[in-house]
Amino acid sequence: MSEDKLRITLITHSYWPEHSPPQRRWSAMIKAFSAAGWQVDVVTPIAHYPFGKRHLPRTEAGWPFMTRKGQYSERIMPVPYLRHGTSRFARLLDQSFSALFSIPAGLMVKKPDVVIVTAPSLPSLAAGFVLSKLRRVPLIVEMRDAWPDLARDARLVQGSVKSLIEHVVEFVQRRADLVVTVTDGFAATLRSRGVRNVATVSNGVYLDRIPVLSPPPLEKSVFEALYLGNHGESQRLDVAIRASALVGEEMHLHLVGHGTQRQQLEELALSLGAPVTFHAPLSGHAMIERYASADTCLVSLRDDWKSFETTVPSKTYEVLALGRHVTAVVRGEAARIIVDADAGDITPSSPEALATLWRELARNRGRLIRTDQSRQWVKTHADYNLLADKYMDIISDLLVRKRTR
Q: CB–CB of 115/102 below 8 Å?
């Protein structure tokens, strides 16, 4: 098949019409692939993110094994899913169930030039590996999180002996024709473990779709902090809630989104009498309005998981593009990006340290005024138009090498 008509089978645990990190990333990539004449078949579960059950009409969510057109030229092949709650085990069962059906679904679409599977849905890695072997085409494994390291940090596996999860993940990583990471740090980690072909294509944003916000006023009676994103174990948002309770009435914290810890966080805020308001997920104009009302935007990852030293929350790029001050409770590569972009302040993951910073910002609001350096950083490093071109070059180079061999 000629390069301008290259065909890809993508296996992902979430895609349009859902709104999720893999959906945002791969909608951007597929838009560019389609414009270049590439055809993508997306094998993905019927839309049921994030609540574990279908919440869209069948005409939007899809029917099992019945292909439908996506937003661009891609064809979507939905596979069945299992209804589930918020427990890890239930989600793993659901992912395993869908991954199993992804193999025959992948055989029902036209033979591709390459199979791409995107994790952190670990069962999907196995499905992608099997499908690439059955199709006899190269395999690209995309690691959007630092697996298998994250499995041990999250106590999915324990002890000194490698678990089945770690063996499976490393098996697929070592036998993939290419592993794509979203951070340079995890790419270096994989290379140090002997994974031969590794490339980095970070997460990003469409810069031209994100406005430049006016700076927050120098006089304001209540300091407003905003977090927008997942409410899970990884974010440790309880630290921010406890910090807001320490600051008290001179501030207000807005938490926007959903996640497995949402109910516990609401209960914590209520018990502390913290100045916190919880909001449902926002998008479009409503999301921009919420950003505009904020004085600082919180980017947070827990600091007791070593794998997060090579992790960058995907919302980081959106906040940088907007030009808002960033309160960064991160370390490692994410912290370096905040410094390079001159985007705000980095603080330890403790309520006392975070409360101290927010008090200082509330009393010296001039520190909230940013230059355009953070937006320029995004333009250079994290604009999806550039990232998609980079991804296409990587795929093309891989296939040229395979054909030459």
A: no
Query: What are the CA-CA distances from residue 368 to residues 250, 256, 279 (Å)?
Result: 16, 21, 24
Token pair 């140090």 is at which residue? 192
User: Tell me: the pLDDT tens digits for 335-361?
Assistant: 999 999 999 999 999 999 999 999 999
Summarize pLDDT for 168-193 with one digit per residue, the tens.
888 999 999 999 999 999 999 999 98
Mean pLDDT computed over every residue of the chain:
92
How confident is the model over 106-117, as a mean pLDDT? 97
Q: How confident is the model at residue 125 (pLDDT cuts 50, 70, 90)?
A: very high
Q: How confident is the model at residue 272 (pLDDT cuts 50, 70, 90)?
A: very high
Of 80, 78, 91, residue with least CA distance to 50: 91
List, in order of start, the domains of the chain with CATH numbers. 3-204+383-404 (3.40.50.2000), 207-380 (3.40.50.2000)
pLDDT for 240 beyond 90: yes
pLDDT at 1: 40
- Per-residue 3-state assignment (H helix, E strand, C coil) for the chain: CCHHHCEEEEECCCCCCCCCHHHHHHHHHHHHHHHCCCEEEEEEECCCCCCCCCCCCHHHHCCCCCCEECCCCCEEEEECCCCCCCCHHHHHHHHHHHHHHHHHHHHHCCCCCEEEEEECCHHHHHHHHHHHHHHCCCEEEEECCCCCHHHHHCCCCCCCCCCHHHHHHHHHHHHCCEEEECCHHHHHHHHHCCCCCEEECCCCECHHHCCCCCCCCCCCCCEEEEEECCCCHHHCHHHHHHHHHHHHHHEEEEEECCCCCHHHHHHHHHHHCCCEEEECCCCHHHHHHHHHHCCEEEEECCCCCHHHHHCCCCHHHHHHHHCCEEEEECCHHHHHHHHHCCCEEECCCCHHHHHHHHHHHHHCHHHHCCCCHHHHHHHHHCEHHHHHHHHHHHHHHHHHHHHHC
